[in-house]
Amino acid sequence: MKYLIAFVLLFAVAAGDRHDDIKAAAEACNLNKVVLQSQDKEKIGETVFCVNKKIGLMNDDGSLNENVFKSDAKLWNSDDDLTQKIFNNCKDLKGDTPTIKAYNLAKCIKENRN
Protein backbone atom coordinates (compact mmCIF):
# COMPACT_ATOMS: atom_id res chain seq x y z
CA MET A 1 0.00 0.00 0.00
CA LYS A 2 3.01 2.24 -0.08
CA TYR A 3 1.94 3.16 -3.59
CA LEU A 4 -0.89 5.20 -2.04
CA ILE A 5 1.65 7.51 -0.44
CA ALA A 6 3.49 7.85 -3.71
CA PHE A 7 0.23 8.56 -5.53
CA VAL A 8 -0.85 11.26 -3.07
CA LEU A 9 2.60 12.84 -3.07
CA LEU A 10 2.81 12.75 -6.87
CA PHE A 11 -0.64 14.28 -7.02
CA ALA A 12 0.38 17.00 -4.56
CA VAL A 13 3.55 17.85 -6.48
CA ALA A 14 1.68 18.08 -9.77
CA ALA A 15 -1.28 19.94 -8.36
CA GLY A 16 0.20 23.42 -8.50
CA ASP A 17 -2.09 25.71 -6.52
CA ARG A 18 -3.65 22.75 -4.73
CA HIS A 19 -0.24 21.53 -3.51
CA ASP A 20 -0.45 23.18 -0.10
CA ASP A 21 -4.03 22.01 0.48
CA ILE A 22 -3.19 18.41 -0.42
CA LYS A 23 0.01 18.42 1.62
CA ALA A 24 -1.78 19.87 4.66
CA ALA A 25 -4.56 17.29 4.35
CA ALA A 26 -2.05 14.43 4.10
CA GLU A 27 -0.23 15.70 7.19
CA ALA A 28 -3.43 16.29 9.17
CA CYS A 29 -4.57 12.75 8.41
CA ASN A 30 -1.15 11.21 9.20
CA LEU A 31 -1.03 9.66 5.73
CA ASN A 32 2.65 8.74 5.74
CA LYS A 33 2.59 7.18 9.20
CA VAL A 34 -0.59 5.18 8.75
CA VAL A 35 0.13 3.79 5.30
CA LEU A 36 3.70 2.84 6.11
CA GLN A 37 2.72 1.10 9.34
CA SER A 38 -0.44 -0.67 8.22
CA GLN A 39 -1.53 -3.23 5.68
CA ASP A 40 -5.13 -3.05 6.91
CA LYS A 41 -7.43 -1.92 4.09
CA GLU A 42 -9.86 -0.30 6.52
CA LYS A 43 -7.13 1.69 8.32
CA ILE A 44 -5.54 2.82 5.07
CA GLY A 45 -8.97 3.65 3.65
CA GLU A 46 -9.76 5.70 6.74
CA THR A 47 -6.67 7.81 6.18
CA VAL A 48 -7.21 8.16 2.43
CA PHE A 49 -10.86 9.10 3.06
CA CYS A 50 -9.71 11.76 5.53
CA VAL A 51 -7.41 13.28 2.90
CA ASN A 52 -10.05 13.01 0.17
CA LYS A 53 -12.65 14.78 2.32
CA LYS A 54 -10.27 17.56 3.28
CA ILE A 55 -9.40 18.30 -0.35
CA GLY A 56 -13.04 18.02 -1.45
CA LEU A 57 -12.57 14.93 -3.60
CA MET A 58 -15.08 12.90 -1.60
CA ASN A 59 -18.17 13.88 0.36
CA ASP A 60 -19.02 12.83 3.93
CA ASP A 61 -21.14 9.94 2.65
CA GLY A 62 -18.23 8.56 0.62
CA SER A 63 -19.53 9.72 -2.74
CA LEU A 64 -17.16 11.18 -5.29
CA ASN A 65 -17.20 14.89 -6.02
CA GLU A 66 -17.02 14.47 -9.78
CA ASN A 67 -16.18 18.10 -10.58
CA VAL A 68 -13.21 18.11 -8.20
CA PHE A 69 -12.05 14.74 -9.54
CA LYS A 70 -12.09 15.94 -13.14
CA SER A 71 -10.49 19.27 -12.29
CA ASP A 72 -7.73 17.76 -10.15
CA ALA A 73 -7.06 14.91 -12.58
CA LYS A 74 -6.06 17.48 -15.18
CA LEU A 75 -3.37 18.74 -12.81
CA TRP A 76 -1.46 15.43 -12.82
CA ASN A 77 -2.48 14.10 -16.20
CA SER A 78 -2.44 16.02 -19.48
CA ASP A 79 -3.99 13.20 -21.53
CA ASP A 80 -7.71 13.98 -21.71
CA ASP A 81 -8.55 10.50 -23.01
CA LEU A 82 -6.73 8.86 -20.11
CA THR A 83 -8.39 11.22 -17.64
CA GLN A 84 -11.80 10.28 -19.04
CA LYS A 85 -10.92 6.57 -18.91
CA ILE A 86 -9.84 6.84 -15.27
CA PHE A 87 -12.98 8.79 -14.41
CA ASN A 88 -15.27 6.32 -16.18
CA ASN A 89 -13.60 3.31 -14.56
CA CYS A 90 -13.39 4.77 -11.06
CA LYS A 91 -16.43 7.03 -10.60
CA ASP A 92 -18.80 4.34 -9.34
CA LEU A 93 -17.19 3.76 -5.98
CA LYS A 94 -17.36 0.24 -4.62
CA GLY A 95 -17.52 -0.51 -0.91
CA ASP A 96 -19.85 -0.68 2.05
CA THR A 97 -18.26 2.23 3.90
CA PRO A 98 -16.77 5.57 2.88
CA THR A 99 -13.34 4.33 3.99
CA ILE A 100 -13.44 1.26 1.76
CA LYS A 101 -14.71 3.43 -1.10
CA ALA A 102 -11.73 5.76 -0.60
CA TYR A 103 -9.32 2.82 -0.58
CA ASN A 104 -10.88 1.39 -3.73
CA LEU A 105 -10.84 4.79 -5.45
CA ALA A 106 -7.10 5.22 -4.83
CA LYS A 107 -6.46 1.66 -5.98
CA CYS A 108 -8.60 2.14 -9.12
CA ILE A 109 -6.85 5.38 -10.07
CA LYS A 110 -3.45 3.78 -9.61
CA GLU A 111 -4.41 0.73 -11.68
CA ASN A 112 -5.90 2.81 -14.50
CA ARG A 113 -3.08 5.33 -14.84
CA ASN A 114 -1.06 2.91 -16.96
From TrEMBL:
<dbReference type="InterPro" id="IPR006170">
    <property type="entry name" value="PBP/GOBP"/>
</dbReference>
<feature type="signal peptide">
    <location>
        <begin position="1"/>
        <end position="16"/>
    </location>
</feature>
<keyword id="KW-0732">Signal</keyword>
<dbReference type="InterPro" id="IPR036728">
    <property type="entry name" value="PBP_GOBP_sf"/>
</dbReference>
<dbReference type="Pfam" id="PF01395">
    <property type="entry name" value="PBP_GOBP"/>
</dbReference>
<protein>
    <submittedName>
        <fullName>Uncharacterized protein LOC114340883</fullName>
    </submittedName>
</protein>
<dbReference type="GO" id="GO:0005549">
    <property type="term" value="F:odorant binding"/>
</dbReference>
